[in-house]
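Risk register update: the risk of archive-format incompatibility is retired. Evidence:
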Amino acid sequence: MSISQQADVVQEPDAADLDRRTFRIAFALTVALAGVLRISYVVLAKRGEEVVGDQLHYFAQAATIADGRWFEHPWVPGTPSALHAPFTALALAPVSWVDQNLIFTQRLTMAVYGTLVVAGVGLLARVLFTRWIALVATMIAAVYANLWVNDGLIMSETFAAAGVVAVLLAVYAYERRASRLAAVTIGVALGLAGLARAELLLLGLVVVVPLTLLPKDRSWGLRLSHLAIAGGAAVMVVSPWVIRNQVRFDEPTLISTQDGLTLLGANCAETYSGSAMGFWFIDCATEIEYKVPEGADESVRSAVYRREAVSFVRENLDRVPAVVVARLGLGLSLWAPERMIWYNQFEGRESWASRIGLFQYWLLVPLAGYGLWSWPSKRPRWPLVVTASLSVFMIAAFYGITRFRIPAEIGIVVCASVAIVALGQRMARRLRPTS
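Archived output:
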């Protein structure tokens, strides 16, 4: 299929696009229904449910901020804490101050934030494609369980999705018209995304650097200045948090003190073989707790965990390839999907919701592949591809879990909508009576 033929899939005269008014009404209704779905999920499935796993810290950290104790350890007053990137707790702090039924209120708030992500996905698709494709992308995002299941949890995945969407919107705005203001917007979006999930700062390396440096229609001076502006804006956004961490902790700390525990839990005997291979195991940390100095702060503890993890990897390099394959199999739902459904329950995801998300994912991925191949747009596809590759890197480098797929899920939804509209229009042409 030639480029012109690909464009004809959605741009031919007999496949008229939605008019602007109809699109706006349908888009608003779809986003509203997405909100109803998410709030209903929280009310029907989450009311009275206790927080588990990382939710416990996010919930409690937001409450301590609302109480005026900014980023103190929730259970050790006066002790600084940075177990997770700060954005999620900050976003939930206002409602934690208003309402005493904290868990349920925070869940409802997450549902609202998740609804905004749905709108963002639709806007991203509209920037790239026709109104029909944008509307279908909004519909998919509204009902895709791998998105809405996170919107009922008090965790960072909803804000990670928002960060990815914001960065991509800024990237395509810059690609359309490069300017200093557009570069600043990219940097701000990137910095905020990094304050939601630290690994999203890698988008600066894999997306922003090539975006600003590769175009040959601008001088090297202009290219370098735009990169510096974007980088400087990102640094300005994250620097208050990073500086605070350098001052408050004994060991150098950037975004979070969780890196050591993440690495150790993913690199130990239990996760290099057996039933937990490719996943994460908390007991790996508790088994070496005696090596942590008494009275150590979070950064020192993390440094101990990190050294143990690196040492284990070096001693078991022969197992790394097999472990990486297992991680990718789990994280990309190519191997032992029922095991991942079981694992997800320990973070608060119901098995039925995870199963719906699994089937939807299996359906959307081949559609996304077709949509990526056909790509009826003059805008470049590589930012979506590279952003999705970040998910693959995270899974391979750490451990296999579906929530690490968030950067890829955005691209999957957008590209699958291209395929659905193209196939729908092709079917309509075949069913249309010939004169």
